[in-house]
Each structure stands twice: as structure tokens, then as C-alpha cells.
């Protein structure tokens, strides 16, 4: 039984090493593929949150990405298929996408926190100045 299990695991690992899809001539580099997939994730999340705004503009997300990154649909499809056939490469690309999303999220949270701190400080200053004005008015106005 142990030998059969070891045999199946051996066959499994050897089959994983085979190239299922040959590398295309115009393969998009990993870094650029990461950027494209990051932009795609951001745009798709924006579209799901604001679908009516996206529908009104009539912008096709994929056409926008192809133009922005200077690739065509065939090049993207072939590159995506190739990277998907090499799981470790694909995983590293998506880990890069996740890192970019996390970095952007952290930057947005920091900006939001800074803005909230500024608002809180302005409100405190306003409250303090109103209290100072009341004290000043009370000190000028004679008590009955």
C-alpha cells in the first residue's frame, strides 16, 4: 500500500514538472503581468461597487488595460495561460498583486487617518476658541 501511495505521489510530482503550455514568443514579463492583474483587480472592484458609473462611461476595462499597458488581448491571454500552467510562477504573480493591494490599502488608511486627525484637531481648536470667546464675553459682561 505504501509503495502504491509513493508511486502515485511520484507520478503526480513528475507530471507537475511537465510543461503543459509552451512559453509564447511575446510573453508579458512577470512584473508587467503583476501590474496588469493589479489594475484589473482594482478596476473590477470599482466596477462592482459603482457599476452604473462604469456603464454610463462605456469604458471597457480590458480594452483600457490593453491600451494602458501596451499589450493586446492575444498577448495577454497567451501570457495568462502560460503563467497559469506554471503554478509557482502564477502564485508569485498573484502574491505580487496582493502585496500591491495591501500597500495601496495601507496608504489609503494612512491618508484617511491623517485626514481624520486633522478634522478632529480643527474641531478641538474650534471648540476651544468658542469656549475662549464665551469666557471673554463673560468677563466683559457684568454679572447681575
CA-based gyration radius = 28 Å
Number of strands: 0
- Helicity range: over 70%
| Spans of at least 5 consecutive residues with low confidence | none
Terminal-residue CA separation: 102 Å
Give the biggest beta sheet. Answer: none
Shape: elongated
Element order: H for helix, E for strand? HHHHHH
Derived from helix and strand composition plus strand pairing, the structural class reads: mainly alpha
Our estimate of the beta-strand percent is: under 5%
Q: What is the count of helical runs? A: 6
- Overall residue-averaged pLDDT value: 84
In total, the number of domains comes to 1
Could you characterize what this model shows?
- The protein has 144 residues and is mostly helical.
- It is built from six helices and no strands.
Structure in a nutshell:
This protein is mostly helical and 144 residues long. It has six helices and no strands.
Fill in the keyword field for this structure.
mainly alpha
Protein topology:
Blueprint: H1 2-17, H2 30-49, H3 51-57, H4 61-69, H5 73-85, H6 87-140
Helix pairs in contact: 2-3, 2-4, 2-6
Amino acid at each position: 500500500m505504501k509503495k502504491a501511495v509513493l508511486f502515485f505521489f511520484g507520478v503526480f510530482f513528475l507530471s507537475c514538472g511537465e510543461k503543459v503550455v509552451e512559453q509564447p514568443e511575446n510573453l508579458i514579463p512577470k512584473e508587467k503581468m503583476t501590474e496588469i492583474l493589479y489594475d484589473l483587480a482594482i478596476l473590477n472592484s470599482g466596477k462592482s461597487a459603482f457599476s452604473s458609473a462604469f456603464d454610463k462611461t462605456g469604458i471597457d476595462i480590458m480594452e483600457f488595460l490593453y491600451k494602458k499597458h501596451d499589450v493586446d488581448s492575444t498577448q495577454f491571454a497567451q501570457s495568462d495561460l502560460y503563467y497559469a500552467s506554471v503554478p509557482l510562477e502564477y502564485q508569485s504573480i498573484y502574491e505580487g498583486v496582493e502585496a500591491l493591494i495591501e500597500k495601496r490599502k495601507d496608504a489609503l488608511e494612512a491618508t484617511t487617518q491623517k485626514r481624520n486627525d486633522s478634522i478632529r484637531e480643527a474641531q478641538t481648536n474650534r471648540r476651544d476658541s468658542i469656549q475662549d470667546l464665551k469666557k471673554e464675553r463673560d468677563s466683559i459682561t457684568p454679572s447681575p
